[in-house]
Specification:
Blueprint lengths: L1 E10 L8 E6 L2 E6 L6 H6 L9 E2 L2 H9 L4 E5 L3 E8 L3 E8 L4 E7 L4 H8 L3
Antiparallel strand pairs: 1-2, 1-4, 1-8, 2-3, 3-5, 6-7, 7-8
């Protein structure tokens, strides 16, 4: 499976500024709360900084990485009704309305290529 780290400083809103990682997969956006990796397999997934490049990982390694974190939020593209991207001077944000569930807001430090990747991946 192909994944890409979009941000290593993603929060779930201004009131909850706990940093985490924002990943783009073929089927979803995934926000993972930060935690130190526990094994060499996990260290390979935690690349340390956002990249314009995608990585090929085995699905079971990705599933294990997600399972080792308590704070995981998966936004499947098929469940997104509406998405609004906003680019600021220092940060960018994404407001998402899901088919079933609350409105979700994500904030992150601006990084090159992130908005373009999200525009291409999010439903129109």
């Amino acid at each position: 499976m192909r994944i890409r780290l979009l941000s290593d400083s993603c929060a779930r809103g201004w009131a909850t500024w706990g940093h985490g990682e924002l990943w783009l997969t073929e089927e979803a956006l995934v926000r993972i709360g930060k935690r130190a990796p526990a094994s060499p397999i996990l260290k390979a997934l935690t690349v340390g900084r956002p990249s314009q490049d995608e990585m090929d990982v085995r699905w079971d390694s990705w599933a294990y990485y997600l399972a080792t974190h308590n704070d995981v939020q998966v936004l499947a593209f098929e469940q997104i009704l509406a998405a609004k991207l906003t680019a600021g001077v220092a940060t960018s944000s994404l407001a998402v309305r899901l088919r079933h569930g609350p409105k979700i807001r994500l904030l992150w430090k601006r990084t090159p290529g992130t908005l373009q990747a999200l525009r291409a991946a999010l439903p129109a």
